[in-house]
Amino acid sequence: ESKGKKRNPLHDFKKTGELMLIKVNKTLEVKTKLLNTTEQCAKRCSRNKGLSFTCKAFAYDRVTKRCHWLSFNSLTNGVRKKQDHAFDLYEKKDYVRNCIIGKGADYKGTISVTKSGIQCQAWNSMIPHEH
């Protein structure tokens, strides 16, 4: 049924309109480039193509058609949000999602305690439970 149809790269991103992220921590990285569509920005972010960092989000300037790939997202320490009518923010769902899907092997969110408040076991640890 979906033969011949390409998957939209924006599907992996959560969009927040009229928002830009400002890095307070100077070690966080940003790369920009002129691109015509948000789909092109999303595809590059997902593949980390031409980036020296793992892309966690991008902001698209609708006025200048410039993509800003970010090594951080709205949950990263050293980042502040700024209302800006020219920008739309797209954050990778994997990094802002607070739930585990399936077995959680690809989980990259920030939750590290159970519903009852118990610290989660590290993935590389066999204590207190074996996998």
In short:
The protein is mainly beta and 131 residues long. The chain has helices at 38-47, 93-96; strands at residues 13-23, 30-34, 57-61, 66-70, 79-92.
Look up the CATH topology of the domain at 7-93. Hepatocyte Growth Factor
What is the name of the CATH architecture of the domain at 7-93?
3-Layer(bba) Sandwich
Poorly predicted sequence stretches spanning 5 or more consecutive residues: none
Provide the structure class: mainly beta
Strand percentage = 25-35%
Strand order of the largest sheet: 1-5-3-4-2
Number of strands: 5
Per CATH, the superfamily of the domain at 7-93 is Hepatocyte Growth Factor
Tell me the distance between the termini. Answer: 37 Å
Note the overall shape. globular
CATH class call of the domain at 7-93: Alpha Beta
Write the layout of secondary structure elements.
Blueprint: E1 13-23, E2 30-34, H1 38-47, E3 57-61, E4 66-70, E5 79-92, H2 93-96
Antiparallel strand pairs: 1-5, 2-4, 3-4, 3-5
Keywords: Disulfide bond, Kringle
Organism: Dasyornis broadbenti (rufous bristle-bird)
GO molecular function: endopeptidase activity; signaling receptor binding
